[in-house]
């Protein structure tokens, strides 16, 4: 799979992405905004395992965000069944040198569009730690709406923390948000 997003793209992972994945994932600023299953420090063993899993998954739902030279982040969806309607959770991260450039917003918009096109989804949702204001802005700019605050939902740094939940409905995907 490959989606162009300006000067960057969303593409399938490759075994050659190991070094770039370690370079950008092994950053405390990336780790602090992701769930506890994301390791820190992030090693070559972790990168190889992640890429092997992403390449094996069917349907393919986890991708690299890449420049013309290398993978610079990751984005994917996890398909869920909520009642009788289909939904998916979206997750993403970028290497620190690429923060604040609009790449994540473009990637979220593009992957949400691709997911609605390729799966029978009614909604896509995301969770953001209460302190991660940049990620909340990414979702809002991509057309997502904040649905609420989940108190003491996950544990991070050994204590319960709050999450905000954002979502977008299929019919709202093309609603443009201010940049």
What do these coordinates show?
This protein has 179 residues and is α+β, with helices and mostly antiparallel strands. The protein has a single domain, classed as Aminopeptidase, CATH 3.40.630.30. An eight-stranded mixed β-sheet has the order 1-2-3-4-5-6-10-7, sandwiched between helices. Strand 8 and strand 9 form a beta hairpin. The two termini are 27 Å apart. The mean pLDDT is 90.
Provide a compact summary of the structure.
The chain is built from five helices and ten strands. With 179 residues, it is of the alpha+beta class.
Features of this protein?
179 residues, Aminopeptidase, eight-stranded mixed β-sheet, 5 helices, globular
Termini separation: 27 Å
Number of strands: 10
N-to-C SSE string, H for helix and E for strand: EEHHHEEEHEHEEEE
The biggest beta sheet reads: 8 strands, mixed
Low-confidence parts, pLDDT < 50 over ≥5 residues? none
Q: How many domains make up the 3D coordinates?
A: 1
Q: What topology does this entry show?
A:
Blueprint: E1 2-5, E2 8-11, H1 18-25, H2 28-31, H3 44-56, E3 62-66, E4 71-82, E5 85-94, H4 103-118, E6 123-129, H5 133-141, E7 145-150, E8 155-156, E9 159-160, E10 163-169
Parallel strand pairs: 5-6
Antiparallel strand pairs: 1-2, 2-3, 3-4, 4-5, 6-10, 7-10, 8-9
């Amino acid at each position: 799979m490959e989606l162009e997003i300006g000067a960057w793209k969303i593409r399938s992972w490759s075994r050659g992405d190991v070094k770039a994945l370690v370079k950008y994932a092994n950053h405390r600023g990336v780790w602090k905004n992701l769930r506890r299953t994301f390791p820190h420090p992030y090693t070559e063993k972790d990168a190889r395992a992640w890429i092997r899993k992403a390449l094996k998954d069917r349907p393919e739902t986890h991708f690299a965000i890449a420049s013309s030279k290398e993978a610079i982040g990751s984005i994917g969806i996890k398909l869920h069944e909520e009642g009788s309607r289909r939904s998916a959770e979206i997750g993403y991260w970028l290497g620190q040198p690429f923060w604040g450039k609009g790449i994540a917003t473009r990637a979220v918009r593009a992957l949400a569009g691709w997911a609605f096109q390729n799966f029978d989804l009614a909604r896509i949702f995301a969770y953001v730690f209460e302190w991660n204001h940049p990620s909340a802005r990414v979702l809002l700019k991509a057309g997502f709406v904040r649905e609420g605050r989940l108190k003491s939902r996950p544990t991070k740094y050994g204590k319960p923390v709050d999450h905000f939940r954002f979502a977008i409905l299929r019919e709202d995907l093309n609603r443009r948000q201010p940049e």
